């Protein structure tokens, strides 16, 4: 019976859904040995380091990932980085197929003057910081100003704005990194402006996230009724369902009673950022409005959340922040799935059907299986996190959270994670 050896690089949703698709393609006459390689000591990608901590239900998808990981023929190789601890050439030579599922983690830039001033940061730094990603444990954003501006009109912008604008006590029962809860508690920020370049009818927020906003117990959520009315008019008589649902959710927000709380999250539309100004540090953001006027918002922090791009990996072709591919095929026995393939769009579930389509192509391309590969001997690090090491880390984090009513307390340094895994 042929057994194909597949290396999946990246233990985020796309990697796990690719592994699940391969497991589903197995028959009595065909099987897959799957080695999943992940640069961090922890798996789950953005489900651990991206999804907002105050949305814990979304993270229950990790149960699916753990089921995939404990099925026969699956091995996790955490704390192993493609490009550092192993090369794409070695993987290509030793495996029947290599699936790149490395996501896209670098924040896109606006490319306007003042973007490099202190106080100007990216959601690609702020989000992994509050989520305890080891590479961002020391990031320490300064939250000592009164007003922050978040630039972007998608769910990431909304997450970032909400995390800045909610009452920090609301994070006590979440898995927000403890260092972030400390800093957020001391934050002076009381007003967060989310700024979108286009009108509400074009915003990429999704309606479940919008409908959650009025549930914030300690924050005024401000949308101007005239902005939403104008958006409804521009959307015409029969807007698409998603646009209709979004505008309806925004209309409800715009009708909320205002002014009760010390903290406010305010949406502004049709404002294009032109420049960040300040003396060594951001003091204001200058926008151009849809009628060509200048609008200035005074602030001490600006966070851009305008999308992500992938950092190129050696030996893999990239174009416009994505792996160059044709329906997921990259080159001989190399495939790509998830955000590395499509760019930063779609929810977690989008990666499932996408990965299944690519794995069907992978199977169609298979010929004679290669002899078994022993990955451990090919890797240049001896601190490899296996599934059972990861299970020890997972159990320790969950146990640490229990007395505090938290789903987990995350370990945030590689050393601590390796120690919890039993490797240090
Ligand atoms: C801030 C934020 C919030 C989000 N919130 C939601 C939400 O609430 N609901 C929802 O449905 N979707 C949400 N999403 C979208 C969702 O997270 C993505 O659709 C999904 O994570 C993409 O999966 P992926 O596997 O392609 O990438 P990722 O999740 O980024 O996984 C990629 C993995 O590859 C690893 N990797 C990278 N380079 C290497 C290398 N060289 N060697 C080995 N491993 C490597 C990374 O460490 C990572 O673990 C959110 C996204 C962001 C950014």
Topology, element by element:
Layout: E1 3-9, H1 13-25, E2 31-38, H2 46-49, H3 62-69, E3 74-78, H4 88-94, E4 97-100, E5 106-107, E6 120-122, H5 123-130, E7 147-151, H6 155-165, H7 178-185, E8 191-195, H8 207-212, E9 219-222, H9 225-235, H10 241-254, E10 263-268, E11 271-277, E12 284-289, E13 294-298, E14 301-304, E15 308-309, E16 318-319, E17 322-323, E18 329-331, E19 334-336, H11 339-342, H12 350-365, H13 387-401, H14 414-421
Parallel strand pairs: 1-2, 1-4, 2-3, 4-19, 6-14, 7-8, 7-14, 8-10, 9-10
Antiparallel strand pairs: 5-15, 11-12, 12-13, 16-17, 18-19
Bound molecules: flavin-adenine dinucleotide (FAD).
Residues 9-15, 37-40, 45-46, 50-51, 55, 58, 81-83, 101-103, 127, 155-156, 159, 313, 338-340, 346-348, 351 line the site of flavin-adenine dinucleotide.
Protein model, in words:
The structure is a single chain. The chain has 14 helices and 19 strands. Helix 1 crosses helix 3 (62-69). It folds into two domains: 3-105 and 309-385, 3-Layer(aba) Sandwich (Rossmann fold), CATH 3.40.50.720; 109-306, FAD/NAD(P)-binding domain (3-Layer(bba) Sandwich). It has helices spanning 13-25, 46-49, 62-69, 88-94, 123-130, 155-165, 178-185, 207-212, 225-235, 241-254, 339-342, 350-365, 387-401, 414-421, and strands spanning 3-9, 31-38, 74-78, 97-100, 106-107, 120-122, 147-151, 191-195, 219-222, 263-268, 271-277, 284-289, 294-298, 301-304, 308-309, 318-319, 322-323, 329-331, 334-336. The protein has a six-stranded mixed β-sheet, with helices on both faces. Strands 6-14-7-8-10-9 form a six-stranded parallel β-sheet. It has 424 residues and is α/β, with parallel strands linked by helices. It binds flavin-adenine dinucleotide (FAD). Flavin-adenine dinucleotide is lined by residues 9-15, 37-40, 45-46, 50-51, 55, 58, 81-83, 101-103, 127, 155-156, 159, 313, 338-340, 346-348, 351.
């Amino acid at each position: 019976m042929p057994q194909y050896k597949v290396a999946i690089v990246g233990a985020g949703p796309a990697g796990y859904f690719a592994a699940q698709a391969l497991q589903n393609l197995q028959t009595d006459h065909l099987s897959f040995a799957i080695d999943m390689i992940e640069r961090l000591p922890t798996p789950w990608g953005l489900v651990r380091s991206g999804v907002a901590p105050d949305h814990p239900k979304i993270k229950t998808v990790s149960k699916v990932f753990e089921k995939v990981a404990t099925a026969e023929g699956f091995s996790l190789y955490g704390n192993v980085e493609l490009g550092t601890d192993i090369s794409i050439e070695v993987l290509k030579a030793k495996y029947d197929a290599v699936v790149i599922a490395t996501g896209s983690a670098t924040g896109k830039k606006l490319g306007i003057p003042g973007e490099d001033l202190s106080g100007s940061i990216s959601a690609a730094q702020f989000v992994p910081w509050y989520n305890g990603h080891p590479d961002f444990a020391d990031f320490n954003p300064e939250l000592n100003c009164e007003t922050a501006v978040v630039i972007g009109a998608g769910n990431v912008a909304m997450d970032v704005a909400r995390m800045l604008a909610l009452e920090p006590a609301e994070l006590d029962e979440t898995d927000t990194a403890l260092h972030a809860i400390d800093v957020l508690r001391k934050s002076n920020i009381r007003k967060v402006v989310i700024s979108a370049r286009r009108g509400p009818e074009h915003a990429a927020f999704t309606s479940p996230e919008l409908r959650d906003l009025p549930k914030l117990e300690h924050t005024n959520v401000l949308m101007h009724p005239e902005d939403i009315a104008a958006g409804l008019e521009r959307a015409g008589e029969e807007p698409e369902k998603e646009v209709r649902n979004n505008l309806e959710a925004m209309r409800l927000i715009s009708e909320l009673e205002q002014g009760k709380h010390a903290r406010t999250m305010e949406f502004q539309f049709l404002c294009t950022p032109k420049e960040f100004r300040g003396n060594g540090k951001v003091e204001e953001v200058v926008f151009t409005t849809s009628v060509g006027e200048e609008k200035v918002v005074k602030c001490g922090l600006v966070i851009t959340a305008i999308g992500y791009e992938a950092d190129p990996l050696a030996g893999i072709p990239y174009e416009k922040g994505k792996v160059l591919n044709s329906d997921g095929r990259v080159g001989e026995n190399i495939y790509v799935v998830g955000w590395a393939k499509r760019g930063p769009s779609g929810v977690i579930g989008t990666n499932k059907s996408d990965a299944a389509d690519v794995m069907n192509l992978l199977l169609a391309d298979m010929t004679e299986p290669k002899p078994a590969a022993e990955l451990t001997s090919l890797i240049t690090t001896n601190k490899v996190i296996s599934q059972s090491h990861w299970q020890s880390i997972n159990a320790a984090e969950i146990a640490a959270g229990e007395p505090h009513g938290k789903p987990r307390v995350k370990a945030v340094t590689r050393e601590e994670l390796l120690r919890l895994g039993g490797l240090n």
